[in-house]
Amino acid sequence: LVGSDGSVYPTIFAEMSALAARTGAINLGQGFPDEDGPAEVLEAARAAIANGVNQYPPGRGIPDLLEAIAEHQERFYGVLLDPGRDVLVTAGATEGLAAALLALIDGPDDEIVVFEPYYDSYAAVVALAGARLVTVPLRWPDFQPDLSELRGAVTDRTRVILVNDPHNPTGAVFTAEVRAEVVRLAEQHDAVIVTDEVYEHLVFDEPHVPISTMPGAWDRTLSISSGGKTFSATGWKIGWVTGPADLVDAVLAVKQFLTYVNGSAFQPAIATGLRLPDAFFRSIGQSLKAKRDLLGAGLLAAGFDVSTPAGSYFTVADARPLGATDAGAFCRELPHRAGVVAIPMTAFATPARRAEYATLVRFAACKRVEVLEEAASRLAAAH
Ligand code: PMP
Ligand code: GLN
């Protein structure tokens, strides 16, 4: 995490967003929307600030948000949570993941199984906690894991199987067979399942299925999500962890010494968002699906091969038909050549497997239609 000269390496997102700012290129790198979310949610935050909701909230989160999280899980997934015991509010999904892994990892022999490529904080937190990362590859173009490779990765040393579904950076939504195998392996080896479901409502075909709803999963699963993507408020950092009270308490024990609490005025606003009608939740997936199609068509027209995602903000494209051999070099040059920023998939892979992702590039579709159209025409012109 720190270079030999003592400097802190920026994350790939910070590096590529700075490159976009410096060059004036369209930023299809870091995944954040360029439009605000629902007016009711923004107004609820303003009202909370005006009404003096500006001091430390309770350690688990404000009761209204705990209840709204429980209502949301019952409405969409039929999960019945005790809001006072099975729910914990965190500083984004990022803190929920960090606190969960720090709580569950006992020592250097513990192994954490993740699908690779993975969201960058996973490997960093496993390193900070001093455990071992074991990865199962997701391969172009459908990015579903091979079940025998998954079986080979999970052993009695496995403390946690960490599943991000829908998946960043690939846009994959895992099949029912994959979810069932994760649960079976966790039971067989007495591992905990930690899920990252921040894209739960950004799915294009089938409704999202949380692993916690699979038979046998509930007692050993911590589910993590956040309001950032669903309500287009990635800077608010209101996330949550849900699951059986004993596991949630272990996360709270760590969380209280990471941030203690955060975002008092944003908590009631996210509660307002979680109570919006079904039509809102349907509309965000539909609108992003149209953007995915626009971006995918633009990338194809510009000469890339494209893997069509089933969820998330992202589309993965192969730049090999354009002559690329190194996605990192390709992405560092793209803003100068085409005025567009994207992220090399190698940034999400372990050194041993980077070669498999060497020519793949991640593009974010969560931008205004006119921005995506302009990016597509720039990429086509540079082709
Ligand atoms: N997990 C994944 C897979 C993500 O893509 C992101 C955000 N980009 C996060 C976690 C972080 O979520 P939050 O902003 O709520 O901390
Ligand atoms: N989750 C966002 C992405 O994958 C960015 C998060 C970040 O900047 N750390 O692009």
Provide a concise account of the structure shown.
The chain folds into two domains: 123 residues, Aspartate Aminotransferase, domain 1; 235 residues, Aspartate Aminotransferase, domain 2, CATH 3.40.640. It has 13 helices and 13 strands. The site of glutamine (GLN) has 5 residues, from loops.
Structure, explained:
It is a single chain. It contains 13 helices and 13 strands. Helices cover 42% and strands 15% of the residues. The longest helix is centred in the C-terminal third of the chain and has 24 residues, at 278-301. The mean pLDDT is 97. It is globular, with a radius of gyration of 20 Å. The protein is of the alpha/beta class and 383 residues long. Helix 2 (39-50) packs antiparallel against helix 10 (266-274) and helix 11 (278-301) packs parallel to helix 13 (369-382). The protein has helices spanning 12-23, 39-50, 63-77, 92-104, 120-129, 147-153, 176-188, 227-230, 245-258, 266-274, 278-301, 327-338, 369-382; strands at 26-27, 87-91, 111-116, 132-137, 158-164, 192-196, 221-226, 238-242, 305-307, 314-318, 340-341, 343-344, 360-364. The chain folds into two domains: 12-30 and 279-382, Alpha-Beta Complex (Aspartate Aminotransferase, domain 1); 40-274, Type I PLP-dependent aspartate aminotransferase-like (Major domain) (Aspartate Aminotransferase, domain 2). The strands form three sheets. Strands 2-8-7-6-5-3-4 form a seven-stranded mixed sheet, with helices on both faces. Residues 31, 92-94, 119, 164, 168, 196, 198, 226, 228, 234, 237, 239 line the site of 4'-deoxy-4'-aminopyridoxal-5'-phosphate.
